[in-house]
Amino acid sequence: MSVEVLDGATIVSFVEDDEAFHVSICDRFAHLDTDHDGLLSYAEMLEELKSLRVFETHFGIDEKPDPDELASVYNSLFVQFDHDSNGTVDLEEFKAETKQMMLAMANGLGFLPVQMLLEEDSILKKAVEKESTANVVA
Question: How far is 104 from 72, CA to CA, in rounded Å?
Fold first, then answer.
């Protein structure tokens, strides 16, 4: 993990770079697809859903949610990705929903820079790295 500075423009620029975004999505999808069938089951996506940390509310300290509430939230998130309601998430569904989530995050951040703790293999970390590389080249 590392602390990075980013803003909404960092995320939008990354999502709009079709090649960089597609490569990152394919890498993440392949990492999650542990049985290599080209589809993500609920079980395969559960760790990714947990990494969204939807219950982290007090400066990095997790709340102790009700297990039934937690299961309901994760199921609802999975349904958001499963556009055709077939019980699995394919690459295109994963890409489309991730794009929507990232653009919503960018909108929420706006254009004021914030510091965030990012996992090394996260898509947000790749967005920051892409921006850093572009600034070095420019």
Answer: 22
Q: With contact defined as beta carbons under 8 Å apart, do 122 and 10 qualify?
A: no
Straight-line distance from the first to the last Cα atom of the chain, in angstroms, rounded to the nearest whole number: 27
Distant-in-sequence, close-in-space partners of 124: CB < 8 Å, separation ≥ 6: 4, 6, 11, 102, 116, 118
Exposure pattern of 83-109 as b/e (b: 16+ CB <10 Å)? Answer: eeeeebbbbebbbebbeeebeeebeeb
For the entire predicted model, the pTM comes to: 0.82
Per-residue pLDDT of the chain (138 residues; tens, 9 = 90+): 889 999 999 999 999 999 999 999 999 999 999 999 999 999 999 878 777 655 555 555 556 767 788 788 889 999 999 999 999 999 999 999 999 999 999 999 888 899 988 888 888 899 999 988 876 655
Backbone φ and ψ for 93, nearest 5 degrees, come out as -65, -45
Q: Are strands 56-58 and 61-62 parallel, antiparallel or unpaired?
A: antiparallel
**60 residue type, one letter:** G
